[in-house]
Write a structure and sequence with these properties.
By secondary structure, this protein is mainly alpha-helical. The protein is built from ten helices and two strands, in the order H-H-H-H-H-H-H-E-E-H-H-H. The chain has one domain: Rhomboid-like fold (Up-down Bundle), CATH 1.20.1540. Strand 1 and strand 2 form a beta hairpin.
Length: 211
């Protein structure tokens, strides 16, 4: 029997509430940056510092910072709502691997693009890159689950993710200086897609359009 290549080997299933832990850590970091604002610049993703000052940790730490109360509230609500079912299905270790690979990947893409587009000194914060990837994975495994978009519009998860992704493309083109990291969101979707395709052998596009 042929062994699976290393990048496809499943991790041992364990459940240890990683999603809830991520929410708690994010809320804790939000409170810390409220009390000590100087921490924000050190941990936010600033492409100039990543490239010139070798502040490579920012590619990870930016995921735990948020720009305001509504920013963190929405992100953590979405993370908990879509992350918990995935974590229970995959196991906590696989879920964390997916979360951090997609979030870090989105951060690297943001550094590369912003460095060459004149936004090298603009800080980027938020878990949204990884969370968009989590939404993609949820819609791939639970495509027909109805969710409430904007809290009152019922929509199948696969359609909702397509709508959200399409809006991000439109906003990226039409609102380049809006202060929202649309590129990071889209990069999270791309890395999530690649992870699901390469590691799990699942093509979200086929799942979404197979009907």
């Amino acid at each position: 029997m042929n062994e699976l290549p290393v990048y496809k080997r499943p991790l041992r299933y364990r459940f240890y509430n990683a999603t809830l832990t991520l929410v708690i850590v994010n809320v804790g970091m939000y409170l810390i940056t409220m009390l000590f604002p100087q921490v924000f610049r050190y941990l936010a993703l600033i492409p100039y510092l990543v490239v010139r000052e070798r502040a490579v940790w920012q590619i990870l730490t930016y995921m735990f910072l948020h720009g305001g109360f509504w920013h963190i509230l929405l992100n953590m609500f979405v993370l908990f709502m879509f992350g918990m079912p995935l974590e229970r299905r995959w196991g906590s270790s696989e879920f964390l691997l997916y979360y951090f690979i997609t979030g870090i990947g989105a951060g690297i893409a943001t550094v590369a693009v912003n460095w060459y587009s004149g936004l090298a000194v603009v800080p980027v914060v938020g878990a949204s890159g990884a969370i968009f990837a989590v939404m993609l994975a949820f819609a791939t495994f639970y495509p027909d689950t109805r969710i409430l978009v904007s809290l009152f519009i019922p929509m199948p998860a696969r359609i909702a993710v397509l709508v959200f992704t399409g809006l991000e493309v439109v906003y990226l083109i039409s609102r380049p200086g809006s202060g929202v990291a649309h590129l990071t969101h889209l990069a999270g979707v791309v890395f999530g897609y690649l992870y699901l395709l390469i590691r799990m052998g699942i093509n979200p596009i086929r799942v979404f359009f197979r009907r």
